[in-house]
Design a protein that fits this description.
It is built from 12 helices and 7 strands. The chain is an alpha+beta fold. The radius of gyration is 21 Å and the shape is elongated.
Length: about 260
């Protein structure tokens, strides 16, 4: 049987060397049959490594795709200076679309437009798919068979989530007046058109919460929890007033990563 300290070093090295999160099964595959290592051994090694990094600038966390080391949020601002490129900034329209898909999936494009009150730019959907944050999960069983969108493991990994159950509860979001003014739903200023997205899912929850506060009659379809929203009848969707895509819908990203 392999010594525990050596096991820890192997697991640590593998996680640091890997370009993606690793599951316990993938880590277990590093060891041969004669090395008598089990899932429990890997789990204990990960738990010990997490304790070892408690006071360090990095942390070992579990996301949807497995375990990974990452820079702690409290030192991220300094470490980020290693990279000269500007962080990707996304339009308010893109954030609203992503937030609705995350909280109301599976959801169709028409249902997103009904809630937002404006048409969803094709470029926004394409950008979210290219980022591998959303994917097609099926088609609504109504005339026209509209596409249903849902989030991906890549979305969960980016926001440091193991599952959708870990999305912030909408009922726990702070008052609308206390939110970041950049996320206000009034006439957007030039600076407010693009919003920097970090890996805090609270941003998405706040966007959905604000959408629910725009028109109480129309936004009542947004529940106070991330449970999937029932299908919207085709007749209801067709009578909903849809405006043309605004200029900010077209300005999806300031920089494509």
């Amino acid at each position: 049987m392999i010594e525990f300290e050596l096991l820890k070093r192997i697991v640590e090295a593998a996680l640091l060397a890997a370009g993606n999160p690793l599951t316990t099964t993938q880590l277990l595959a590093l060891f041969g049959d004669n090395e008598a290592t089990s899932h429990d051994d890997i789990a204990r090694a990960i738990e010990s490594l997490q304790a070892d990094s408690a006071s360090r600038g990095i942390e070992l966390i579990e996301v949807a795709s497995g375990f990974r080391y990452q820079v702690r949020q409290d030192v991220h601002a300094w470490v980020a200076r290693l990279w000269t490129e500007r962080p990707s900034r996304y339009s308010r329209a893109l954030l609203e679309t992503l937030a609705l898909i995350a909280y109301r999936q599976p959801i169709t494009r028409g249902e997103i437009e009904q809630i937002r009150g404006v048409a969803v730019s094709t470029h926004i959907i394409k950008t979210l798919e290219e980022r591998e944050w959303i994917r097609v999960v099926g088609h609504r069983d109504v005339p026209g068979k509209p596409t249903l969108f849902g989030t991906t493991r890549g979305f969960l990994d980016y926001f440091n989530l193991k599952s959708l159950d870990e999305l912030p509860s909408l009922g726990e979001i702070r008052d609308i007046d206390d939110l970041d003014p950049q996320l206000s739903l009034g006439p957007p200023s030039e600076d407010a058109l693009a919003i920097a997205v970090d890996n805090d899912p609270q941003v998405l929850a706040e966007v959905v919460e604000q959408l629910a506060a725009i028109e109480p009659q129309e936004s009542g379809v947004i529940a106070a929890d991330p449970a999937p929203r029932p299908a919207v009848p085709a007749e209801a969707a067709s009578t909903s007033p849809i405006l043309s895509a605004s200029e900010r819908d077209a300005d999806t990203t300031e920089q494509d990563a």
